[in-house]
Amino acid sequence: MDLEFSQEDFDFQMEVRQWIEENYPEEMRKQRLLRKEDYVYWQQALYERGWAGLNWPEEYGGPGFTLTQRYLYDLEMSAAGTPGILPFGQSMVAPVIMAFGTDEQKDRYLPDILASRVWWCQGYSESGSGSDLASLRTKAVRDGDHYVVNGTKTWNTLGQHAEMIFCLVRTSDEDIPQKGISFLLIDMHLPGIEVQPIVTIDKPPEGYQEINMIHFTDVKVPAENLVGEEGKGWTYAKYLLEFE
């Protein structure tokens, strides 16, 4: 087995190192806490370079790194202390949309996720439904061409910045709990959504808190935002956790 790096590998490593030097701002290097605009700047810079969606298939815009290139890329990013990529869009909901979404959902959501034009967050945990996620109680009742969503999600990360949330909701109380869960994509600007900060013990400065509760009160979500089949959300949620 040949474990030596090729000259092409070394050239790629130097390319990544030089790009970081030219594009990672000095002020970001010194910051202990990053703002939304810092994350967006960094992720969009990577997108412009063609290095977004590292685990995405090339057909959806992934960079197509070899295993060696990915290792060297991660090595250089880690050595420079660059920000991590927020996982909720590129690493979590995107694979679910690729695997189970409609063509329309792929066309609508994936380009903006890859380019970091839309900020996503996660709606899984609830009070009393953390490790026992199948007991979740946030309900989505079908009403014509919409679902009406009521309930509360907790331990949400950075939802105060999000434009979209992928959410597990209960669409049926029949059969075992896992079979009544569906996977919805919800616009965070819809009427009836309230983001409530949770003050953590570290008491971050104003504007930098990360954890929230998200309340849904009669939120009307288009039925076309259902991913896959109604009642199959538990399957999609388990698939997503492979990428978390």
Please give a quick description of this structure.
With 244 residues, the chain is an alpha+beta fold. 35% of the residues lie in helices and 21% in strands. The chain folds into 2 domains: 7-85, no CATH class; 90-241, Butyryl-CoA Dehydrogenase, subunit A, domain 2 (Beta Barrel), CATH 2.40.110.10.
Protein model, in words:
This protein has 244 residues and is α+β, with helices and mostly antiparallel strands. It folds into 2 domains: 7-85, no CATH class; 90-241, Butyryl-CoA Dehydrogenase, subunit A, domain 2, CATH 2.40.110.10. It is 35% helix and 21% strand. It is built from 7 helices and 7 strands. A hairpin with a 2-residue loop joins β2 and β3 (146-157). The longest helix has 17 residues, at 7-23. The protein is globular, with a radius of gyration of 20 Å. The model has no long low-confidence stretch (mean pLDDT 93).
